[in-house]
Amino acid sequence: MSVSLRTFVYKLKTLEIQGAKQIAIQSLLFLKKYDPTFGRKFERAALELEAARPTAVVLHNCLEILRNGYSVETVDELVERLRSATDSIGKRGSKLIKNGSVIMTHCHSGEALSIVKAAKRSGKHVSVIATLTEPAHQGIRTVKELRSAGIPVTLIADPAIGFFMPHVDIVITGSDAMRREGNVNKIGTYVLALAASANKKPYYVIGDTFKIDRRKSFTTEERPTSEIWHKIQGVKMRDPAFDVTPWKYVRGIVTEESLLTPAQILRKIK
Predict the structure, then answer these.
(1) Burial of 6: CB neighbours in 10 Å, binned 0-12, 13-18, 19+
(2) Of 128, 113, 72, which is closest to residue 207 (Cα–Cα)?
(3) Which residues lie below 8 Å from residue 266, measured CB to CB, with a gap of 6+?
(4) Could you count the other beta carbons within 10 Å of the beta carbon of residue 28?
(5) Are the C-beta atoms of residues 153 and 102 closer than 8 Å to each other?
(6) Is the distance from CB of 111 to CB of 86 less than 8 angstroms?
(7) pLDDT confidence of residue 70
């Protein structure tokens, strides 16, 4: 039984489907079934899907490619490119991890975790400190995935980042969009990068080149404030889902193509 557009959009908005790459992959597979002729239904659905999660850029970039050449084959090629990029990133990024390293990460990123898993497969002994990632607790998904992979992992509250940072060797996070202003990622990443910088720990952004964001502007999603707390009379609440970490706090960017410096990624964004 096929899923309706309304149901699929609801899954995106409620984080049943999350992560910039998975949002793109699942949306592409949905669109292929929803309107394989890529007619008016496709364009209307594409606009709704993009509006459901407007910050992450991967889906936007994929849709731009499709708008310039509609075909089921193109969808399949895009999905394959996205999936294979994770393996390439894992192999390339694992070279940054030394034997015995303690790695800190924030939120959940399949690309970031691919580096940790690849390091373990190469025989390196590593451990991870993962944040709970308030307020939606995506860090739980991270620790469960690492546990299943047999990688030692410690779950910490977000405010404990500074407490544990002196004991960390390297910090890695994913990316939802790489913009001129910096790396857009889950709220709290900026604080993580500041703590890493203060403790002279290298911070690497992990993300494929589909995350390069050339949009003139973008929208920072704000989630329902019920994620934070129930309503308090007379108190304003806000729940931004992402923040932007300036490139000056980033040591390097691991893509499926190469390890880039912030200056190199900025040249690609132009």
Answers:
(1) exposed
(2) 113
(3) 180, 247
(4) 22
(5) no
(6) yes
(7) 74
In the chain, what's the furthest Cα-to-Cα distance? 56
pLDDT score recorded for residue 270: 82
Number of residues written out for the chain: 270
Token pair for 27: 């949306």
Tokens of 219: 């929208």
Tell me the per-residue pLDDT of 148-193, one tens digit each, with 9 for 90 and over. 999 999 999 999 999 999 999 999 999 999 999 999 999 999 999 9
Place of tokens 């980042």: 161
**Rounded to whole angstroms, how far apart are CA atoms 194 and 243?**
13
Structure-block tokens of residue 267: 């040249």
SS (H, E, C) 94-147: HHHCCCCCEEEECCCCHHHHHHHHHHHHCCCCCEEEEECCCCCCCHHHHHHHHH
* Cβ-based neighbour number of residue 140 at 10 Å: 14
Helix (H/G/I), strand (E/B), else coil: 206: strand
Here the tokens at position 42 are 């496709």
The three-class DSSP label of residue 245 is: strand
- The fold of 90-269 is Rossmann fold (3.40.50)
In this predicted model, what pLDDT tens digit does every residue of 56-87 receive, in sequence order?
899 999 999 988 877 888 999 999 999 999 99
Side-chain-facing half-sphere of 31: CA atoms under 13 Å: 33
* Structure-token pair, residue 76: 């399949």
Residues serving a catalytic function are: 107, 176
What sign results for the dihedral spanned by CA atoms 6, 7, 11, 17? negative
Domain boundaries, the chain: 5-87, 90-269
One-letter identity of residue 238: R
Which residues have CB under 8 Å from 13's CB, separation 6+?
A: 52, 53
